């Protein structure tokens, strides 16, 4: 237990999340020096008013970092500091507003699951439409290996977490309280499920309770952890719009889901779409935006060879297959203008590569949406 870790654990108990002044001190003086100045009621560090310094000093009197670290260990969690192997490097984009440290519960590595992560946020008092769309997006993302990040609140947040858990996906809940506090209380079971298969993450020390300001500050962490933020349903004054603003400031992708123009809970999302957000309606569209170049939405059991790499005779046989029906060997050979033995050999290659599947004595294009799309794209690239 290093002095740096103890100091950061203590400061996490004393300082409110997102305090830029303290963030600058950490960069200039280091956590140990800042904590010693506060805990010993020493001379105020530059930029702090007398009242602010006095308030921190009062909080420092009750800080027990060793006890907090013992408490998180009892919960099966850990306290992460910048520089730890599990610390997500993208949090550095927050600059001096980056977290002092993160209290984490769950079996996953925060750094690893945040590599491919998307935030789904929105209204607490969401409609059935918003809840349904959120669950579908979360399920689709999780099935494709993406981490779903949200804030564990009622409404859209809860639907996002449940959607990911429904398909045994990974979901991360960024809290505005300690990771041992069930807030909202009605989500106690949901939070326990997330802690068992995903991660609970908080800047606040164990036992700390949420405030309005802490909800606002946790939004910047949600935005920074992920490659993009999707606002599913939000009114004009929704807290989700705060997360959207952070995503834009951090250079992350900002997306929004359209809803009925008569719904006030879609007004905020529509405003984002008009201004800067990309309209999305499915997990596939989200992944195409935030994923690697050329990444398709559906998972692939095996790599598929692009159309351009096929030998000319194999490409001709592939083009001979109808799009929505199966064909016999004789039909394929006739359309490809080749012999049946040649067609059989090329069909065998195409089956092995995943471009074609066999149904009895017939052959057809795969019915899966991803493979079908791959064939269509390949044909287009080949000028068919």
Task: Write a brief structural summary.
47% of the residues lie in helices and 11% in strands. It has 384 residues and is of the alpha/beta class.
Task: For the structure shown, list the relevant keywords.
384 residues; Rossmann fold; Arc Repressor Mutant, subunit A; 47% helix
Q: How does CATH name the architecture of the domain at 102-290?
A: 3-Layer(aba) Sandwich
Oligomer, anyone?
single chain
Strand order of the largest sheet: 1-2-6-5-4-3-7-8-9
Show unreliable segments.
299-305
User: Which fold name fills CATH's third level, the topology of the domain at 102-290?
Assistant: Rossmann fold
* N-end to C-end Cα span: 64 Å
Major sheet characteristics: 9 strands, mixed
Structural class: alpha/beta
Query: What is the string of SSEs from the N terminus onward?
Result: HHHHHEEHEHEHEHEHEHEHEHHEHHEEH
Let me know the number of strands.
12
